[in-house]
């Protein structure tokens, strides 16, 4: 009975050492993730009339031809079009002007009120312990 327990402990400790070695190898050789999200911006265009499904497809097709837009992130609701763009490549004014040259749309570019332009929108307190701890853990594994 003693020999069986010893063999079982050797097997379990061998598996544990192997698991830890694989985990350490992965942590050491894994490359950190690179996020391009700081360059992603959301913008909006307000249309004067409600947009039907045919017009929505036409607007989406026109927007997808504009350089700098993420083609899978165009949202059309009633009389509003929301889209995401890379602000290193283009800005909302350029997108609006280029869209207006494609067809005679009756629309205007949405601009934030002056009192909201400099407000932070991140709901996370970046000075909190939870934020700093999660950032450290994330950096460790990435």
From TrEMBL:
Keywords carried by this UniProt record: Membrane, Transmembrane, Transmembrane helix
Residue ranges crossing the lipid bilayer per the database entry: 7-28
UniProt superkingdom: Bacteria
Name under which the protein is recorded: Heavy-metal-associated domain-containing protein
């Amino acid at each position: 009975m003693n020999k069986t327990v010893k063999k079982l402990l050797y097997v379990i400790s061998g598996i544990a050492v192997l698991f830890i070695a694989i985990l350490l190898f992965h942590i050491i050789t894994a490359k950190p993730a690179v996020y391009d999200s700081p360059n992603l911006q959301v913008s909006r265009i307000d249309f004067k009339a409600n947009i039907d499904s045919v017009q929505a497809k036409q607007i989406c097709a026109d927007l997808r031809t504009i350089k700098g837009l993420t083609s899978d992130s165009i949202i059309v609701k009633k009389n509003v079009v929301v889209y995401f763009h890379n602000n290193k490549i283009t800005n909302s004014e350029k997108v609006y002007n280029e869209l207006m040259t494609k067809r005679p749309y009756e629309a205007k570019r949405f601009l934030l009120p002056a009192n909201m332009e400099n407000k932070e929108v991140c709901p996370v307190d970046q000075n909190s312990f939870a934020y700093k701890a999660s950032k450290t853990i994330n950096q460790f594994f990435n």
